[in-house]
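Render this sequence as a predicted structure.
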Amino acid sequence: MTSEQRIGPIVLPDNRAQRVLTSLLEGSGVTLNGDARWDPQIYHPDFCSRILRQGSLGLGESYMDGWWESDSIDELAYHLLRHGLGERARPPSDRIMYRLQAGLLNLQSKARAYIVGEAHYDLGNDLFERMLDPTMCYSCGYWKEARTLHEAQLAKLDLVCRKLELRPNMHVLDIGCGWGSFAEYAARHYGVTVTGITISREQAELARERCAGLPVTIELKDYRELSGSFDRIVSIGMFEHVGHRNYGVYFQTVEKLLAEGGLFLLHTIGSNSSEISVDPWIDRYIFPNGVLPSARHIADASEGLLLLEDWQNFGPDYDRTLMAWRDNFDAHWHEIAERYSDRIRRMFRYYLSVCAGAFRAREIQLWQVVFSHERAQRYDAPR
């Protein structure tokens, strides 16, 4: 059903699915066809049965299909998650199937490493250029003193450089360099040489253009293919694609590549739970085979290899970052609308909004963790 065919929200059928879903929502502050700005307005009579059958996957897909609207999807997600409906929105069959797959298969093996690049990051540089700020950072900004998205991303990049104690002529490895935001900033402002790797062809191409003339090398490569020695290593927004079966290999690789006395900074979204799970809608449409690490996963995988020096959580800053991306996306969509379907538009708006709501509800976190080879001197992390 297209927006042109809509007159207004429908009267929901009085059936079992409607009654069960209404009961689940009691106390959440969410009402189907309600008056709050976040309340979903329903345009399809099978909405309730689809949600009960498919859970969070059905909620996202039905939005992409135009079955419902909300003036504030981020607040809708916040209320649902605060009410404890996050895990309950995943059908038991989906949870069991994912755990079986994750237990039997390495969903993030070297052979599968490029899937997320092709599915998401290669979607189109023109889309991401309009959604992100001029740094092309596709990770959480640092809003401590920032007023705009661009200021927040510059503050984040500089914070990382200061935590790594960068000095001229150091050689830095950027694992998951994206569109070259950190590589460009560190080389330009701190005089370092950077080797960046990505599993996205589109990212690699644009990163090379952005870093032209700087001592930066961008390679299309998986982290397990690396060799050499680096004074500093950084990984910003990539660890979410590593997968629990590979955490040990990942930290062993970092330890092997990090020079004596070196520092490693890991910037990653984190889960409150060590249970291996994934949101089925995010897995299907945004980040295939992605999984969030817990604090225990990181600590266990790095133990005996690297010394954990500092751990900072600024997860609430991701809420503000995602909302800024969504504002950019909305403001500039008309510039690329002819090249992408309306289904893509709705997919991105839903993705950015529900993730903002998840950070707002403190369901997920954003961590910067600094490691070293055991240092003789004291390490004081800047803030």
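Summary. The longest strand covers residues 258-271. DSSP finds 15 helices and nine strands in the chain.
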